[in-house]
Write the structure tokens for this entry.
Amino acid sequence: MNILGIETSCDETAAAVVGDGVRVLSNTVVSSLKDHEPFGGIIPEIASRRQIEYIHDVVAESLRQAALTLDQIDAVAVTKAPGLIGSLLVGLCFARGLSRAKGLRLVEVDHIKAHLYANYLQWTQEHTACGQQRLPAVGLVVSGGHSSLFHVRSFRDFKLLGVTRDDAAGEAFDKVARILGLGYPGGPVIDRLAASGANEQIKFPQAPIKGSYDFSFSGTKTAVLYYTQKNKNKPDYSPAKVAYSFQESVVGVLADKALKACHKLKVPTLLIGGGVAANSALRRQLQQRAALEGIDVFFPPMSLCLDNAAMVAGLAYHSL
Ligand code: KG4
Ligand code: ZN
């Protein structure tokens, strides 16, 4: 079964064709990120206007890459929520129109759950690990808009364990990058800069929120702001040290909660998804700690960590 996926929840306009829920036949992504960079964050009005401009060509390109025509597509899947309302509407209207015009079944998919499904896609020759990541699993989705922990009992049964109470993990990276004058998006820049600041750590506070799987990152972000304001003119001030220390603080809480959920629920599989899953410190720390604790941890390939439509088409297969 070939499913055409469409994803327009934020600044990426994405379309993909996935065969039988696992084989990525095409994966096309165009982003309006450059248009938002001068503002230091996503401007919803600009994002939705770009979605309208790009959607038709992106869908056509994904069919071309897959070497299929619409007549060889069995169903259309589209991100329903969460996301920016204007951006979401473009994908939803396009998918609904296509489904009506061609008589195709339509599946509306939750964006956050789809991020975890990225672990099950066969994208390249090297990434054919499907099936090893058995369910049930614990799933951690960390992106620019969300930090959510799930108990994934099946692809149609996700129990939400915890969410962020304020900033999402990626949002905290983006805001700290802005404090440090590093530009937008902040995650990749902080990740790179932190590598050269690893010899000494400033203790920025963490918010463990005991007895809950919820997260909170705004206190850590504010501590970075105060530290920077106080120290930026001192000779030993180092943005790399600040980036490293902030990253350690966030990654530590994410790893603690995800591993704790695995133990409490007696689930030996941990799935990570979302843009922050690309973070090298998160990958390193989780891989090391999970190995010691007898837990198998899985990250999607880098190209499927960020927003894409293959994860949407893949998850939709299980609804059909
Ligand atoms: O999943 P995504 O593409 O969009 C949302 O659904 O939000 O995630 C984008 C987020 C941004 O906040 C970006 O700064 C963050 O992912 N990000 C990273 C890294 N690469 C992207 N955060 C930390 N380390 C990275 N290497
Ligand atoms: Zn996302």
Remarks:
- The beta strands are 2-7, 12-19, 23-31, 75-81, 105-110, 137-142, 147-154, 157-163, 269-273, 296-298.
